[in-house]
Design a protein that fits this description.
This protein has about 350 residues and is an alpha+beta fold. The chain has one domain. It is about 20% helix and about 20% strand. The protein has 8 helices and 14 strands. β2 and β3 form a beta hairpin. Bound molecules: 2-oxoglutaric acid and manganese (II) ion. The site of 2-oxoglutaric acid has 12 residues, from β6, β8, β12 and β13. One of its GO terms (biological process) is RNA repair. It is found in: Nucleus. Its EC number is 1.14.11.33, 1.14.11.51, 4.2.99.18. Its cofactor is Fe(2+). This is Nucleic acid dioxygenase ALKBH1.
Length: about 350
């Protein structure tokens, strides 16, 4: 536990809540010196290197979904949290815009379900991107009173659609899981020692610069032996990883665009939260330019083999896309949508 966090909590209280509030605070802004930045750190007492199964994914397979060869990935674990793996941006330069586009433009489309469907007809929510892009292009987006549909998008569910009221998944609410995202997930999990992963459910979280995600455990999935994945694109965020009890003080870490987290084994059911969104450091902007800026050749993607009974929940995170999106999609500047999580 970080020094400051340790000094803030006393035995028996809800240590997670206290630290969550500390990092969410606006005035004065919190001291971030205890927040782990895996993109700048070296293994030490708290951070341990993780060996990946490099042979489980060929370079060609990795490239097809926009990933570097697995042997190039920087993967870390946290002492005391076996099964938690943090992969510091394994994406090839210039491939993140493809995934951002999928999250903003494609995955919100039917048959997937989003928060706007709760009070709008399927016709009205069918093309969220198309209906928003014109307004977003016109400058001063933040000053407009009426927000576009894209700015009001909070979540999209994929595959087995999560029911937020009953906190369950049901076979009666299922649509095909996006093949490209499944393939990306299957390669990441294979490299982490989980061959044959079938992505059955996904939740995309769309964050604004003032958003947070409350303290929770993802326990609705049927098979907790299957890992849970998180992909982040866009702005950065502080992620808190706690223990199995609310009294366990969490570890704070930065998630930057392109970072991937795997929660598996003893870390699959730990408390976690996102108390704060932060501007991306310039070198971690999702929409980085580069000669690899073309999207991966999705037409050549192949579906995963072998069916699993377990329900994996795939979480993907995307932040604020700005110029990257402009470049990829022709949309105008938009500064409020901050981070997406799938
Ligand atoms: O946005 C994230 O990285 C975390 C998302 C998450 O924990 C969830 O949706 O359950
Ligand atoms: Mn979660």
């Amino acid at each position: 536990m970080a020094k400051m966090a340790a000094s803030m909590v006393e035995g028996g209280e809800d240590a997670f809540r206290k630290i969550f509030k500390f990092y969410r605070r606006r005035n004065p802004p919190p001291d971030l010196s205890d927040v782990i930045d895996f993109s700048r750190c070296a293994p030490g007492e708290q951070i341990i290197p993780v060996n990946l199964a490099a042979a489980a994914v060929s370079d060609v397979e990795a490239t097809r979904v926009g990933l570097q060869p697995v042997r190039e990935w920087q993967a870390f674990g946290l002492r005391g949290h076996p099964g938690f793996i943090f992969i510091s941006n394994p994406f090839l330069r210039g491939t993140q815009p493809f995934w951002l586009r999928q999250c903003l433009k494609i995955y919100p489309q039917k048959p997937n379900i989003c928060n706007l469907d709760m009070h709008m007809s399927p016709l009205e929510t069918q093309d969220i991107w198309g209906q928003s892009v014109h307004s977003l292009r016109s400058s001063q987006a933040g000053k407009r009173e009426a927000r576009t549909l894209l700015e009001r998008l909070r979540w999209v569910t994929l595959g087995y659609h999560y029911n937020w009221d009953t906190k369950t998944y049901s076979p009666s609410s299922h649509t095909p899981f996006p093949r490209d995202l499944h393939l990306l997930s299957a390669h990441v999990t294979a490299a982490c020692g989980f061959p044959g992963f079938i992505s059955e459910a996904g939740i995309l979280n769309y964050y604004r610069s003032d958003s947070s995600l409350g303290i929770h455990v993802d326990e609705s999935e049927l098979d907790h032996t299957r890992p849970l994945l998180s992909f982040s694109f866009g702005q950065s965020a502080i992620f808190l990883l706690g223990g199995p009890r609310r009294q366990d003080p969490p570890t704070a870490m930065l998630m930057h665009s392109g970072d991937v987290m795997v929660m598996s084994g003893p870390s699959r059911l730990l408390y976690h939260a996102v108390p704060r969104i932060l501007p991306a450091p310039p070198e971690r902007l999702a929409l980085e330019t580069g000669d690899a800026s073309r999207p991966p050749p999705t037409g050549r993607l192949r579906g995963g083999a072998g069916v699993r009974g377990g329900m994996g929940r795939l979480l993907q995170v995307h932040p604020e896309l700005q110029s990257e999106c402009d470049r990829q999609t022709g949309a105008g500047a938009w500064t409020e949508i901050s981070r997406n999580s799938l």
